[in-house]
Amino acid sequence: MAFTVAIDGPAAAGKGTISRAVADKFGFAHLDTGLLYRATGRRTLDGTDALDAARSLTPHDLDADDLRTPDVAQAASRVAAIPEVRAALVDFQRAFARRSGGAVLDGRDIGTVICPDAEVKLFVTASDEVRAQRRLDELLGKGHETDFETVLSDLQTRDARDSARATAPLKSAEDAVMLDTTHMSIEEAVAAACAEVARKQAS
Ligand code: CDP
Ligand code: CDP
Question: What residues does ATP bind to (predicted)?
């Protein structure tokens, strides 16, 4: 049976961490839809046309280990504002969402555009400063040379572009449950998300 969990929110709010944990606990498949935009953006950095890149994505492109860099994140957010690029990625995401056995998708427009009928919708947020600190720790841990101010301004530029675009902007679905993780540990955030999934499964 299909059961879709839609998890949206701004950059570095904890969407991926929560999604992976929910997928693990309930035995659902997980799709990080940001990777589709990152892989598309990554190819434009080599000069490939954005729409050509989106239309010809392969599983290999999503596996590349250089998709988590700040440059690729900005390129992702630029190609994500092109309506034709978004349209080229819709069918794949919807098919993934309705697979039997359940699916968790995280991104910006899952609860609003990709899966408006998702059984569970969460909108995960945290303060800009907390998100920037979390992403900074992650980047420093991977050996990137950067600092708090750079990471904060990168997140804010992306969030502003993602929220302002005309097609599928970053925003909460009206029926999403808000999860503000500013003062939550990963364990607390995961527990809150799992409780919401269990509640909907039981109803
Ligand atoms: O997917 P998204 O960009 O929303 O965020 P993420 O990659 O899941 O989380 C960004 C970083 O914040 C990771 O290093 C998480 O371990 C960390 N995190 C945290 O410290 N506390 C939370 N409640 C959630 C995530
Ligand atoms: O991990 P983080 O939250 O920093 O970024 P991501 O989820 O990997 O997304 C990278 C970029 O892709 C975002 O800034 C958005 O511009 C775009 N994106 C989108 O437009 N729609 C989605 N469903 C997922 C990502």
Answer: 9-17
Give me the number of domains the chain comprises.
Answer: 1
Q: What is the per-residue pLDDT for 1? A: 79
Residue ranges around ligand 2 (CB below 6 Å): 11-12, 33-34, 37-38, 73, 76-77, 80, 107-109, 158, 162
100 CA to centre of ligand 2 in angstroms: 25
Counting as low any pLDDT under 50, the low residues of the chain are: none
Whose atoms come closest to the Cα of 17: which ligand?
Answer: 1
- Answer yes or no: is 202 within a domain: no
Confirm whether 110 is domain-assigned.
yes
The ipTM of this complex is 0.97
Distance 61 CA to ligand 1 centre (A): 23
The residue nearest atom 16 of ligand 2, judged by CA position, is 77
Distance CA 106, CA 12 (A): 12
